[in-house]
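Quick one: co-fold with fe (ii) ion.
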Amino acid sequence: MTTTEWNLARNQWLGVSEESVQADSRIYEAMRNFWHPVMFAEDLGSEPAQAMLCGEQLAIVRLDDEVRAYKDLCAHRGTALSLGTVVENNGCQELRCAYHGWQYDCEGRLTAIPQRPDLVGKIRARVQTYHAVERYGLIWVCMAEEPHFPMAEFPKFDDPEYHTRTMKTVDWKCTSPRRVENYLDLGHFAFVHDGYLGDINHPEVPDHAVWREGHVLRIEQLEPNKEPVNTKFESDIEDSEIDYQEDSDEAYTMSDQEWWVTMPLTVLLHQTLPGDRHYYLFFHPTPLTPDTIRNFTVHARNYGDADKIDEEVLNFSLTVYAQDKPIVEAQRPEALHRDLSYELHLQDVDTVSMQYRLWLGELVEELVVDA
Ligand code: FES
Ligand SMILES: [Fe+2]
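Sure, here it is.
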């Protein structure tokens, strides 16, 4: 069986047309127009580092205290610039290739050819550079000439009242929009996260509102969020806050929940607990390749023991991620369907994902030629 025949057979099994699969893959192409975190700022030392975004290898480096992103490919013999070093040239820091020492300034212009200095300025060589910014403990890159939307807001990251922690990244074999939908899926907590974020005896989805606000998809849960109490940490609850059920041994903690989805991939969850306690979960699944993502997560909370946030929040999140991973990696087709008629949607249950898909489709139409 040829690859084409295999793809046709597979699409038939999936119940989708070849055109639809191709249209869905345009979502990935559109991702170049937005900001994505590619690494944690603390992992970038004084020398270049390698990162991956939308199928391209990048060399990330700090030059004169500014983060820079280069295509990780020297114009001379194609080795990785991320193997290079930072050097001084006329009072500015530049990136020097490890192979033959060609140098590039912060805009990617060739400034030195050690073997033939006379040719500098005569050879039209330049390495592609991209927008790069350091924010919220992350290095962000946008590969388009101009980012289509501003970067997501996360004001609590710099608030001294909050303890913040970045979480070790994990790579998944799936597409970024599938992962965002999973993050926002209010119907899966009872099944995938029974005893953690939901209760299998109460699969009902709480009433919620979804609307657009600028470039952000806003979601607000209109009734209190109930989470099983047994996995909560001491700093999350006080006995007076626990909602004990009269007719069973179930007990819950209550919180208010809202989300900001800076389109298309950055999710900020805000939980308000009694006693003016707030927890923020900042999340972005960066597309490394068409079918691989890197989960970037930052936590912030204004309560509890600062030294315990790792143990309490990070370990809990890793458990929750491990519960989601096999489900999301198994979704077919891998790309999110832009055509809503291909999957079934429940009113008041799948509203968020329907709104998300519609907006994603509009962005693709706008940004990808021939979509
Ligand atoms: S490959 Fe980079 S200088 Fe030769
Ligand atoms: Fe989940």
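If it helps, The CA atoms of residues 30 and 367 lie 6 Å apart.
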